[in-house]
Specification:
alpha/beta; Barwin-like endoglucanases; six-stranded mixed barrel; 6 strands
Protein backbone atom coordinates (compact mmCIF):
# COMPACT_ATOMS: atom_id res chain seq x y z
CA UNK A 1 0.00 0.00 0.00
CA UNK A 2 2.90 2.36 0.60
CA UNK A 3 4.56 1.67 -2.74
CA UNK A 4 3.20 4.77 -4.59
CA UNK A 5 4.29 7.05 -1.74
CA UNK A 6 7.69 5.40 -1.58
CA UNK A 7 8.07 5.68 -5.35
CA UNK A 8 7.10 9.38 -5.23
CA UNK A 9 9.59 10.11 -2.43
CA UNK A 10 12.31 8.25 -4.30
CA UNK A 11 11.57 10.33 -7.40
CA UNK A 12 11.84 13.52 -5.35
CA UNK A 13 15.17 12.46 -3.93
CA UNK A 14 16.44 11.55 -7.39
CA UNK A 15 15.48 14.93 -8.85
CA UNK A 16 16.96 16.93 -6.01
CA UNK A 17 13.69 18.75 -5.26
CA UNK A 18 13.84 19.18 -1.51
CA UNK A 19 11.29 21.20 0.39
CA UNK A 20 12.28 24.55 1.79
CA UNK A 21 11.89 24.31 5.55
CA UNK A 22 12.53 27.96 6.43
CA UNK A 23 10.30 29.68 3.87
CA UNK A 24 6.90 31.29 4.41
CA UNK A 25 5.60 28.69 1.91
CA UNK A 26 7.17 25.41 3.02
CA UNK A 27 6.84 22.18 1.10
CA UNK A 28 7.28 20.54 -2.26
CA UNK A 29 4.56 21.06 -4.84
CA UNK A 30 3.48 19.08 -7.89
CA UNK A 31 1.74 20.78 -10.79
CA UNK A 32 1.85 21.44 -14.49
CA UNK A 33 4.20 23.87 -16.15
CA UNK A 34 3.28 25.91 -19.19
CA UNK A 35 4.66 28.83 -21.15
CA UNK A 36 4.99 32.30 -19.60
CA UNK A 37 5.33 34.58 -22.58
CA UNK A 38 7.49 37.64 -22.20
CA UNK A 39 7.01 40.47 -22.33
CA UNK A 40 4.14 39.74 -20.02
CA UNK A 41 3.05 41.54 -16.92
CA UNK A 42 5.71 41.65 -14.25
CA UNK A 43 3.44 42.00 -11.23
CA UNK A 44 6.39 41.93 -8.88
CA UNK A 45 8.35 44.64 -10.64
CA UNK A 46 11.55 42.62 -10.23
CA UNK A 47 14.46 43.35 -12.53
CA UNK A 48 15.14 40.43 -14.84
CA UNK A 49 17.52 40.13 -17.75
CA UNK A 50 17.33 38.27 -21.06
CA UNK A 51 19.24 35.30 -19.59
CA UNK A 52 17.06 34.93 -16.47
CA UNK A 53 14.51 32.19 -16.05
CA UNK A 54 11.30 33.72 -14.74
CA UNK A 55 8.16 32.16 -13.33
CA UNK A 56 4.51 33.07 -12.97
CA UNK A 57 2.61 31.43 -10.12
CA UNK A 58 -1.05 31.15 -9.17
CA UNK A 59 -2.52 34.15 -7.34
CA UNK A 60 -3.08 31.67 -4.49
CA UNK A 61 0.51 32.46 -3.41
CA UNK A 62 -0.44 36.11 -2.73
CA UNK A 63 -2.45 35.12 0.34
CA UNK A 64 -1.53 36.34 2.87
CA UNK A 65 -0.21 39.43 1.07
CA UNK A 66 2.69 39.96 3.48
CA UNK A 67 4.13 36.58 2.42
CA UNK A 68 4.20 37.29 -1.32
CA UNK A 69 7.04 35.37 -2.97
CA UNK A 70 7.86 38.23 -5.38
CA UNK A 71 11.51 38.05 -6.37
CA UNK A 72 12.09 34.76 -4.56
CA UNK A 73 13.54 31.81 -6.43
CA UNK A 74 11.98 28.42 -6.97
CA UNK A 75 13.58 25.19 -8.13
CA UNK A 76 11.55 23.37 -10.77
CA UNK A 77 12.23 19.76 -11.79
CA UNK A 78 10.74 17.98 -14.79
CA UNK A 79 10.88 14.28 -13.86
CA UNK A 80 10.49 13.05 -17.45
CA UNK A 81 13.79 14.72 -18.44
CA UNK A 82 15.51 14.76 -15.05
CA UNK A 83 16.41 18.43 -15.58
CA UNK A 84 15.96 21.16 -12.98
CA UNK A 85 16.07 24.96 -13.20
CA UNK A 86 16.00 27.86 -10.78
CA UNK A 87 13.51 30.59 -11.66
CA UNK A 88 12.74 34.06 -10.28
CA UNK A 89 9.09 34.66 -9.32
CA UNK A 90 8.04 37.70 -11.34
CA UNK A 91 4.31 37.36 -11.91
CA UNK A 92 1.02 35.81 -10.81
CA UNK A 93 -1.84 34.48 -12.92
CA UNK A 94 -5.40 33.97 -11.65
CA UNK A 95 -6.04 31.33 -14.35
CA UNK A 96 -3.45 28.93 -12.91
CA UNK A 97 -4.42 26.13 -10.53
CA UNK A 98 -2.76 26.43 -7.10
CA UNK A 99 0.40 24.39 -7.82
CA UNK A 100 0.65 25.03 -11.57
CA UNK A 101 3.32 27.41 -12.82
CA UNK A 102 4.50 29.06 -15.99
CA UNK A 103 8.12 29.52 -17.08
CA UNK A 104 9.55 31.64 -19.86
CA UNK A 105 10.96 29.94 -22.97
CA UNK A 106 14.48 29.78 -21.54
CA UNK A 107 13.14 27.87 -18.53
CA UNK A 108 11.14 25.41 -20.64
CA UNK A 109 14.08 24.85 -23.01
CA UNK A 110 16.34 24.18 -20.05
CA UNK A 111 13.88 21.70 -18.52
CA UNK A 112 13.49 19.72 -21.71
CA UNK A 113 15.86 16.93 -22.70
CA UNK A 114 16.30 18.39 -26.20
CA UNK A 115 16.11 22.19 -25.65
CA UNK A 116 12.67 22.39 -27.30
CA UNK A 117 10.19 24.66 -25.49
CA UNK A 118 7.19 22.34 -25.96
CA UNK A 119 9.14 19.38 -24.54
CA UNK A 120 9.75 21.32 -21.32
CA UNK A 121 6.05 21.33 -20.52
CA UNK A 122 4.38 18.71 -18.35
CA UNK A 123 4.12 17.68 -14.73
CA UNK A 124 6.80 19.22 -12.52
CA UNK A 125 7.89 19.13 -8.91
CA UNK A 126 8.87 22.48 -7.46
CA UNK A 127 9.79 24.17 -4.21
CA UNK A 128 10.70 27.61 -2.90
CA UNK A 129 14.40 28.09 -2.18
CA UNK A 130 15.76 29.39 1.13
Amino acid sequence: MHFPTTLFLAALAATGAYACTQCPHEGTFTGNVGEYTTPSPNYCGVTVGPHDIVASLSTFWLDPPDESPCGETITVTLPKSGHAVTAIVANFDASLATDDIQLNDLGLESLSADNVVADGEGTVVWTFNN
